[in-house]
Every structure is written in structure tokens, then in C-alpha cells.
Amino acid sequence: MHDIAEGFQRFRQDVFPARAELFARLANDHRPGALFISCSDARVVPELITQRDPGELFVIRTAGNLVPPYAPGADGVAASIEYAVGVLGVTDVIVCGHSDCGAMTALASGGDLGTLPAVADWLRHADAAKARTDATGPASGAGRVAALVRDNVLSQLANLRTHPSVARALARQEVTLHGWVYDIPSGSVEELDTTSGRFVALAG
């Protein structure tokens, strides 16, 4: 905690003064251009890997970058999606998986999650991805995890389309959905090519 407090002091003393004009504008102006849905993994920092300033990304982070399909009732993920698309009017939504994802590794290995009931319940939102990987991907090893990471991005994009705010925006061609996979050791990103259905190097 001491390191975190020291980091805040460095921000106040060194970073904030140099960006004071930006923060003054942001005090009354919230118009992000994109919604970025990523994993809660501490190694994946959306603003860092996209080099976006404060105010440019609306970010949702969940374990395994999972997006539950729409259902009536209180749901923080659904509320954030609805606000980003329906109120803020983001024009792009990115679902970003990543290498060495703990959630996908747990699913790929079939490990016992009996002591983590909340995690087990949450990971059921990746059941469709696991079924796809079971049918078409490698049976084991790192290749299985990598395949599941990609299949999971596809499944979460499908879940995203079930949200009424997203469905309306898609019908009006007001929003575009993107699937990304971030590779931690290389810093590279693959994006879903919607024509081929394959992940390819992100175009600059």
C-alpha cells in the first residue's frame, strides 16, 4: 500500500501539473470513443497498450473478459455496456483476451474449482467457448489455452450482441465490434478478421 500511496504523490506532483489542462477539460466532458472490455488481469492495462489518454476509453474489466448474455435484473456489466453504448455513444467496442489467461487456463485444464464457487459460477459464461475448443482445438497444452482464449473472444462478442443497446446500435450501424487477443511477452495484438473468422496481426 505504501508504494501505491507514493505513486499517487508522484502523480500529483509530477504528472497532474503537466496535464492540468486536460484534467480541467475532463472535469465536465466525458466523451470516450470506445468501450474496451478486458480481463481483470493486472498485466493487461487497456490505456497502456492502446496509448490512450484519460477520457478516451470506457473500460470494463472482468475475470476472463467475460460478458454475460443479457438478462433482466441488476447486472453491473450490463449496466456499464448500456451506459457506454446508449448514453455515451461509443462507436467501437473491443473485447480483448490475452495470453496466459488464468480463467482460460483453469477451463482448459478442467481443474477443480470446488473451493472457488463464485469463480466456477462466473466461468460458466465461457461454456460455449469451451465447447467450441473441445470440438475443434488442441486436446491439451499451451495450444489448447491459446485456442480457448480466441474462442472465448468470439463467444463474448456473441454475448455482447444480445444486449439491447448493442443490438440497436448495430442495427443502426452506429457501433462496430472488435475482437482482440493481446500477447503479454511480445506486446503484440491479433484482431479478429470478420471475413475469414481468423485472428490476424492488428493493422496499424
What is the secondary structure topology, with strand pairs?
Layout: H1 2-18, H2 20-26, E1 34-39, H3 46-50, E2 57-62, H4 76-87, E3 92-98, H5 102-109, H6 117-123, H7 127-136, H8 141-160, H9 164-171, E4 176-183, E5 188-193, E6 198-201
Helix pairs in contact: 4-9, 5-8, 7-8
Question: What would your notes on this structure say?
Answer:
With about 200 residues, this protein is an alpha/beta fold. About 45% of the residues lie in helices and about 20% in strands. It is built from nine helices and six strands. A six-stranded mixed sheet has the order 2-1-3-4-5-6, with helices on one face. The protein is globular, with a radius of gyration of 18 Å. The model has no long low-confidence stretch (mean pLDDT about 95).
